[in-house]
Design brief:
about 25% strand, alpha+beta, 3-stranded antiparallel beta sheet, 5-stranded antiparallel beta sheet
Length: about 220
Amino acid sequence: MDRQSGFTLIEAMIGAAIGVIVVWGLLVFAGRVLGWANAANQRVNAVANADRLIERMSSDAVSALAVYVPATDALGTSNGDGHEVDFFTEDGAHRIYGWAYTFSAATGTLTRYALNPGAAATAGDTLDDLDSFSASALTVGQLGSYDPLFAAASAPDVPFTFSAMPGVVGGNRLVAVQLTASGVNRSVLLAGADAPTAFTVVVTYTASPAPVATATPIPPTLYP
């Protein structure tokens, strides 16, 4: 009778161990690939959210009479770190109102609040997954420190306060906003729609030449 060959117990255990190691390696690799994909997707979303927020605040500034950094935020806490930027304007019926973007470092959330004199702030849209947000008030004379293009520019500070809503400062004051999200850095310089300045644009031109007088030619004499 022929002797049948097969795996011994040790060989089976070694094979099972190798199989477990291979499966574990595949699971680890798959987990890392999934993590890389999630990180890439989070970064893409962060870029889109940051760009959308910058675009929205720039659009808000166009319709605002003033953009400013208040001493206290919409919830009544100190805004010394610039975690909130506010906008102020009025409608066609001269009814005043404002809105604010308030950042919570604890939750990484930016909330838009509606502001009305004598009433509590009303929370609106939120934007999540922000790492940081800060707003800094600048005078127009500090513009050169923010943008080297204006390093040699000179303009007087023209602040304007609105008595209808205490704490609002407009005029030609500026606000620099910076935010980060998943390694993405964005910044924007905001100014109210009616910000006055003392900049003068001088245009030089060359006057058109004077018309040159030319004699009218004498028609030729025709003989029959």
